[in-house]
Amino acid sequence: KQEVTQIPAALSVPEGENLVLNCSFTDSAIYNLQWFRQDPGKGLTSLLLIQSSQREQTSGRLNASLDKSSGRSTLYIAASQPGDSATYLCAVLYGNKLVFGAGTILRVKS
Amino acid sequence: DADVTQTPRNRITKTGKRIMLECSQTKGHDRMYWYRQDPGLGLRLIYYSFDVKDINKGEISDGYSVSRQAQAKFSLSLESAIPNQTALYFCATSKTGYGYTFGSGTRLTVV
Lengths: 110, 111
Description:
The structure holds two protein chains of two kinds.
Chain A: E1 4-7, E2 10-14, E3 19-25, E4 32-38, E5 44-51, E6 56-59, E7 62-67, E8 72-77, E9 86-94, E10 97-100, E11 104-109
Parallel strand pairs in A: 2-11
Antiparallel strand pairs in A: 1-3, 3-8, 4-5, 4-9, 6-7, 7-8, 9-10, 9-11
Chain B: E1 4-7, E2 10-13, E3 19-25, E4 31-38, E5 42-51, E6 54-57, E7 64-70, E8 73-78, E9 87-94, E10 101-102, E11 106-110
Parallel strand pairs in B: 2-11
Antiparallel strand pairs in B: 1-3, 3-8, 4-5, 4-9, 5-6, 7-8, 9-10, 9-11
């Protein structure tokens, strides 16, 4: 069964801290992996898309890595800000099926 | 304008009523999806369509139907709404080699 697990489930950090969110997947035959951000009651905003042939992608203070062989991806957020507070979702595309993790709820305290 | 637009944003309806949620996109993507999100259950796929003549059931299609009116339009209907269909509904689009783009969601409450 194709499953995606995100650790930790929740994280609270002081402003300015660098942090890492983890995503693991059981089946390494992925097409791509996408990180999303979701604010409470709002839609999903795409942060980074990593194709299966890529090792990492960067956008501003965000960096996502992909290690297919170990079934892991990490989302690194540098110099966190209160505005980064949200739920972060990892989603893995297997063929035509997008499988989501349960998300990490991030709170950045000012 | 948003790439993926959902209407309405919020809706309260009574049990037994028929309701339609609409989705339109300007991404030019051929694939469109409907998901629902419930606390603790994450996102679950209801229906998906890879082109205008292609409609497929997802994990939880019972009680729902869809129509792909054009490449850019994909609507979700609840034929006879029930309270456990209260959820946040999302439309999404994708294209081979690209990621998914989600709409802002429709919050549906069935009373």
